[in-house]
């Protein structure tokens, strides 16, 4: 696969890669399912103001025809490739067992102790790279297309509760159990199983109506009053820490709680966790749009302030 380390792949290669994603996710990697990332990115793109929307279109490669969600799983596809192996620790955070807290200085590093190499550090990193977009090409040390795609993906991951999990069980990856009748693990239940079960059982395999339901919940439904608090962020570079803290708290309260390795999780677990999963997808999307509107858009005053301090 080393020779395919190219971004501007043709459509057939892209389809091949999609098969590869399924393969990789099935082999135990940390990853919000393809569906989770796609919904997060679609929600975000639907909330962009015209200026930000224009920049996003401009940064995306032509072959996706302006659709950000088409590339939101790309970082999961490439993380095992030699050229991008450095990006692998950026998808998650390992926190001390049972601490149920995230401390950036203590926890945000890779297995070798290299600082900032965790999903909260990555969101911060790619946000700060995109903040330079408006300064023009002179300060483009980084590839803005890659920064946009990495940010969009990692905003999904930082909101997946089990991506901020305990070290010894690798965020639930080593807690083997059954999901209804098939073998799975606790990490996968949160990455994919709950989403796929909902898609099949509640939405008759129609992802669009699934996404519409999530979107309706924050436009005029149960979560519409919470939108202001979701997007409250005084400093774009420290907010990822807050979002990661939310994740580990949810992982403790709803992910790990009451779960024993080897058991079967089914209806009861699904019913009580479903709306937590969808809310995290919604929050990831809403907050991604908030960031992109601030760094690319016109009308946000606070953006100037953030720029002035970086
Ligand atoms: C940015 O990265 C993408 C993907 O790796 C690549 O295809 C593109 O040519 C790069 N753009 C620039 C300006 O280097
Ligand atoms: C920040 O982005 C650059 C460019 O992609 C990458 O080399 C570096 O490892 C990233 N660091 C973090 C913490 O995300
Ligand atoms: C919408 O919100 C309600 C109330 O929190 C929840 O029960 C329901 O599952 C949510 N629907 C979706 C699709 O998230
Ligand atoms: Zn990921």
List descriptors.
disordered N terminus; three-stranded mixed beta sheet; 310 residues; single chain; mainly alpha; binds 2-acetamido-2-deoxy-beta-D-glucopyranose; P1 Nuclease; 5 strands; binds zinc ion
CATH homology superfamily: P1 Nuclease
Please list the strands of the largest sheet in the order they lie side by side: 4-3-5
Low-confidence stretches: 1-29, 301-310
The coarse overall form would be globular
Mean pLDDT: 88
Overview of the structural elements:
The protein has one domain: Orthogonal Bundle (P1 Nuclease). Helix content is about 55%, strand content about 5%. The chain has 13 helices and 5 strands. It has helices at about 10-25, 35-45, 50-60, 75-80, 105, 120-130, 145-160, 185-200, 205-220, 225-230, 240-255, 265-295, 300-310, and strands at about 95, 165, 175-180, 180-185, 265. It is globular. About 40% of the residues are buried. The model is unreliable at about 1-30 and about 300-310 (pLDDT under 50).
């Amino acid at each position: 696969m080393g020779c395919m380390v190219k971004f501007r792949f043709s459509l057939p290669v892209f389809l091949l890669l999609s098969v590869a994603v399924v393969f990789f996710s099935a082999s135990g990697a940390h990853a919000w399912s393809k569906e989770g990332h796609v919904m997060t990115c679609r929600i975000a793109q639907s909330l962009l103001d015209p200026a930000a929307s224009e920049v996003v279109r401009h940064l995306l490669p032509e072959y996706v025809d302006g659709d950000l969600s088409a590339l939101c799983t790309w970082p999961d596809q490439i993380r095992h490739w030699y050229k991008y192996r450095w990006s692998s620790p950026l998808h998650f955070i390992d926190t001390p067992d049972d601490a149920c807290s995230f401390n950036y200085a203590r926890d945000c590093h890779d297995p070798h102790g290299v600082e900032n190499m965790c999903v909260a550090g990555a969101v911060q990193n790619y946000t700060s790279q995109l903040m330079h977009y408006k300064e023009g090409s002179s300060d483009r040390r980084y590839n803005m297309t890659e920064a946009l795609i990495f940010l969009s993906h990692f905003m999904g991951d930082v909101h997946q509760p089990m991506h901020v999990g305990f070290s010894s069980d690798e965020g639930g990856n080593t807690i083997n159990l059954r999901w209804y009748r098939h073998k799975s693990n606790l990490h996968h239940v949160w990455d994919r199983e709950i989403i796929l079960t909902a898609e099949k059982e509640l939405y008759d395999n129609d992802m669009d109506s699934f996404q519409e339901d999530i979107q309706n919940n924050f436009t005029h439904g149960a979560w519409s009053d919470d939108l202001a608090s979701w997007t409250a962020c005084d400093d774009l570079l420290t907010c990822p820490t807050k979002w990661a803290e939310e994740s580990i708290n949810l992982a403790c309260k709803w992910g790990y709680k009451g779960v024993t390795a080897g058991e079967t999780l089914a209806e009861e677990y699904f019913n009580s966790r479903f709306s937590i999963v969808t809310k995290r997808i919604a929050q990831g999307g809403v907050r991604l749009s908030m960031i992109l509107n601030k760094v690319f858009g016109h009308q946000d005053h606070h953006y100037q302030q953030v720029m002035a301090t970086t």
